């Protein structure tokens, strides 16, 4: 079903209203949580002060009391989490509606031309607003979240951002940032567009030459296993360019809004690496051995 | 690498946009160098540190600082919709809230788990105590083998099941603990304090108990022994108290006075016996006084009189006394005995030494027992004194030996020092002076002398067999 501009705008407005309501709910939940936390803190303090005079029966009673308080806090926090997830999913929905609109508009032929500065900003904002995965306890990060690779049979959808290995000259190939136009199942090839509109190049590339970028960011404090470890060899988008180069992870993001800090391989520096550069989670991907050299 | 990038720039991907194509690596260009615009990261870190609160949460009072967009939207009425331009900032703020909540959930779960772990540990302890109580049953039942077949399943299961359970529990505990470790740093602190293993101080206890037996003898020890010696030689045995009233008299008096008091409750309950009571008793006793044992001489006299009816010589006073007074009381008989003695001695019939003792010791079992105990005690005391003297002597010898050993240790050290000096001198090819040689010889001789002296001493201490 084609998504007309009107329908899209209507859907977006609906989501925005729902989001607004949810934000009020969030605040109510936060008040409730704060009360729970305050009582817990009081109880903890009481336990601490009385723990010096250690009476096993009374301490066990206090422990049980604390436990029930923790349980109350847990329920409140879980409720808050539900509302927050709902609110965020509204935002993600709005984004996907907008993206859908953009793709359809492009298919219709009216490409919005954006300048390079705007493109860089857009790439940055896309990286920052990539949906965040905050895992529940015991939950593993899904594929294409942070450093988690795609499933073997994964087919990138139209509009997905990918790194594509394209031949830029007779001798040289580069991993460029591109967007999937379509998947050609008969040939097992992707049709991709260079993200840089100026290039006006459409490439048809075999699946091996296309690597999907993460669809989600991983929250470092809850889903650290979904991040590249320090010292990992990766491909990272060089700042202010649309090309991926080999790099070594120097520091992991500390929060969901933080980028990686990577050192690009660069023979012009004495130790073979560039100074630390900050690259968003979205633009750091696992290296494809033998392909990344581009030679 | 750089060339590649230059090449790629020259390819026109970026260069035409007027970007600084020669310095793509300049960190200043990176758009990520404005972290102040990212609310989540900064605010989260700040609230955590500022509050010093183990529970991760963003206070509502900090809303304006940490969540400006959310605060703005909250302040508006529902009619005023959220703008699309607000979404990015709002998303980041909501994400930081979500992440905060997720961390809080983990914290709570960790805390609850650690409390549960403690509980199960406590239960395990109780179970272990219960198990110990059950062991006697287990040990017993091989005895009654007939019952065994019947109750085997029941009994053998009983002690085993809790054991298995608790083992499973403990491994679970360990796992939980690991999880806690990963999940929340805060609960780790708690857990560590709660999981400290009981200290194994048995070796210390053992060595402490052995120490006094191996410690070198000190002057204090000798002083202690000497004080013991003085104590034991000074103490004299307690004197044997004089013979009191016969217990039968005391008891009879008590009995009668009780009876009287019971029959006349109005009468004063005077301490001791009322004169009436003792009078009464004496009246009762008169009839039975015939076979009362008196002194040995009186007995002899009486028996002589009774057998022969004729006295070889007259003792008229006594005779009179006997006929009139013997039956009065034991006391009287004693006086009679005394009189008899006096008379016999005065008449020159018996010497005072030949007189048998006033009361026959063989008759008094208690006195005999006391005497026996006294002789035993004296013997033990003598033995103790002897041992103490021996010990003090040994201690003094040991002290001498210890002194010598101390001296020997010093000389040993001296020898080692001298040896080191000599080796150093040899290495440096420095000639050894005469004085040094003399010192060395002196030290060695001293060593030999002390060794001889120590060996000459008789063996003492734990090595003496």
From TrEMBL, chain A:
Q: Does the keyword Cell division apply?
A: no
Report the superkingdom from the record. Answer: Eukaryota
Cellular component terms per the entry's GO annotation: ATAC complex; nucleus; SAGA complex
Q: Which UniProt keywords apply?
A: Coiled coil, Nucleus, Transcription, Transcription regulation
InterPro entries in alphabetical order? SGF29 (IPR037802), SGF29_tudor-like_dom (IPR010750), Tudor_SGF29_rpt1 (IPR047288), Tudor_SGF29_rpt2 (IPR047287)
Q: Which CDD domains match?
A: Tudor_SGF29_rpt1, Tudor_SGF29_rpt2
SGF29 C-terminal domain location: 152-293
Q: Where is it located?
A: Nucleus
Identify the PANTHER family for this entry. SAGA-ASSOCIATED FACTOR 29 (PTHR21539:SF0)
Q: What is this protein called?
A: SAGA-associated factor 29
From TrEMBL, chain B:
Q: Does the keyword Nucleus apply?
A: yes
Q: Where in the cell is it found?
A: Nucleus
UniProt keyword Hydrolase, yes or no: no
Principal subcellular localisation of the protein:
nucleus
Which stretches are tagged as biased composition: Basic residues?
Answer: 1-11
Q: Locations of Polar residues compositional bias?
A: 18-28, 259-271
What's the protein name? Transcriptional adapter 3-B
């Amino acid at each position: 079903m084609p998504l007309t501009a009107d329908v899209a705008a209507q859907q977006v407005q609906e989501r925005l209203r729902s989001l607004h309501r949810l934000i009020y709910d969030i605040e109510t939940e936060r008040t409730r949580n704060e009360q729970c936390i305050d009582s817990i803190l009081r109880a903890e303090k009481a336990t601490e002060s009385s723990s010096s005079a250690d009476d096993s029966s009374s301490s066990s009673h206090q422990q049980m009391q604390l436990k029930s308080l923790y349980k109350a806090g847990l329920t409140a926090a879980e409720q808050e989490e539900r509302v927050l997830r709902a609110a965020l999913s509204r935002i993600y929905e709005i984004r996907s509606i907008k993206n859908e609109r953009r793709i359809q508009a492009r298919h219709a032929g009216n490409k919005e031309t954006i300048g390079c500065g705007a493109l860089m900003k857009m790439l940055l904002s896309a990286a920052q607003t990539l949906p965040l995965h905050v895992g529940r306890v015991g939950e593993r990060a899904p594929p294409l979240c942070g450093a988690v690779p795609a499933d073997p049979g994964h087919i990138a959808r139209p509009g997905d951002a990918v790194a594509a290995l394209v031949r830029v000259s007779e001798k040289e190939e580069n991993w460029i940032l591109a967007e999937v136009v379509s998947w050609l199942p008969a040939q097992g090839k992707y049709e991709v567009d260079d993200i840089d509109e100026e290039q006006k190049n459409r490439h048809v590339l075999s699946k091996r030459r296309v690597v999907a970028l993460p669809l989600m960011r991983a929250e470092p404090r809850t889903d650290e296993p979904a991040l590249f470890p320090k010292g990992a060899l990766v491909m990272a988008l060089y700042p202010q360019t649309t090309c991926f180069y080999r790099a070594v992870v120097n520091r992991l993001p500390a929060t969901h809004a933080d980028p990686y800090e990577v050192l690009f391989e660069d023979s012009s520096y004495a130790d073979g690496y560039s100074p630390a550069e900050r690259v968003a989670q979205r633009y750091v991907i696992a290296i494809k051995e033998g392909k990344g050299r581009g030679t | 690498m750089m060339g590649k990038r230059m090449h790629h720039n020259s390819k026109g991907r970026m260069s035409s946009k007027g970007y600084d194509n020669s310095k793509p690596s300049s960190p200043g260009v990176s758009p990520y160098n404005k972290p102040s615009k990212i609310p989540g990261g900064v605010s989260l870190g700040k609230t955590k540190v500022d509050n010093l609160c183990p529970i991760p949460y963003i206070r509502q009072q900090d809303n304006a600082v940490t969540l400006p967009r959310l605060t703005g939207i909250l302040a508006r009425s529902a009619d005023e919709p959220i703008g699309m331009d607000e979404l990015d900032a709002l998303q980041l703020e909501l994400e930081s809230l979500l992440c905060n909540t997720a961390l809080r959930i983990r914290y709570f779960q960790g805390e609850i788990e650690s409390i549960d772990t403690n509980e199960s540990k406590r239960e395990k302890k109780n179970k272990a105590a219960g198990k110990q109580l059950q062991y006697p049953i287990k040990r017993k039942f091989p005895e009654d083998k007939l019952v065994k077949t019947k109750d085997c399943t029941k009994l053998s299961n009983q002690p085993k099941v809790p054991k298995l359970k608790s083992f499973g529990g403990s491994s679970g505990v360990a796992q939980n603990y690991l999880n806690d470790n990963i999940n929340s740093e805060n609960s780790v602190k708690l857990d560590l304090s709660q999981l400290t293993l009981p200290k194994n101080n048995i070796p210390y206890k053992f060595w402490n108990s052995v120490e006094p037996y191996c410690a070198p003898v000190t002057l204090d020890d000798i002083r202690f022994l000497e004080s013991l010696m003085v104590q034991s030689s000074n103490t004299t045995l307690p004197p044997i108290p004089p013979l009191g009233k016969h217990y039968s008299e005391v008891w009879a008096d008590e009995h009668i006075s009780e009876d009287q008091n019971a029959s006349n409750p109005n009468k004063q309950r005077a301490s001791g016996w009322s004169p009436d009571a003792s009078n009464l008793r004496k009246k009762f006793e008169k009839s039975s006084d015939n076979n009362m044992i008196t002194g040995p001489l009186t007995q002899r006299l009486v028996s002589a009189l009774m057998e022969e009816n004729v006295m070889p010589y007259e003792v008229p006073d006594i005779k009179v006394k006997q006929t009139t007074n013997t039956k009065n009381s034991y006391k009287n008989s004693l006086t009679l005995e005394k009189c008899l003695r006096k008379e016999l001695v005065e008449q020159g019939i018996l010497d005072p030494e030949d007189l048998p003792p006033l009361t026959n010791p063989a008759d008094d079992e208690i006195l005999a027992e006391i005497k026996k105990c006294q002789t035993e005690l004296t013997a033990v005391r003598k033995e103790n004194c002897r041992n103490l003297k021996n010990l003090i002597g040994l201690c003094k010898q040991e002290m001498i030996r210890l002194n010598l050993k101390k001296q020997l240790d010093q000389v040993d050290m001296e020898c080692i020092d001298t040896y080191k000096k000599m080796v150093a001198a040899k290495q440096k090819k420095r000639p050894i002076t005469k004085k040094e040689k003399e010192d060395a010889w002196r030290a060695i001789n001293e060593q030999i002398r002390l060794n001889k002296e120590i060996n000459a001493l008789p063996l003492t201490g734990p090595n003496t067999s």
